Amino acid sequence: MPTFSGQTTIQDVAAAYPGALEGRTYLVTGATNGLDVPRAGTVVITGRSEQKLAKTLEDVKSTASSKTTVKPLLLDLESEDSVRRAAEQITSGTLGIPKIDVLVNNAGILGVPYKKVGGYESQFYCNHLSHFLFTHLILSHIASPGRIINVSSIGHRYTKVRFDDINFKDGEDYDKFHGYGQSKAANILFSIGLTKRFSKTKGIQSYSLHPGLIITGIMDHLDMVAEGIKNEETGTYWNEVPITYDQGTATYLYAALAPELNEKGGAYLDECKIADTTYPMTEEDADRLWNLSNSAFCTSF
Question: Which pTM does this prediction carry?
Answer without folding.
Answer: 0.94
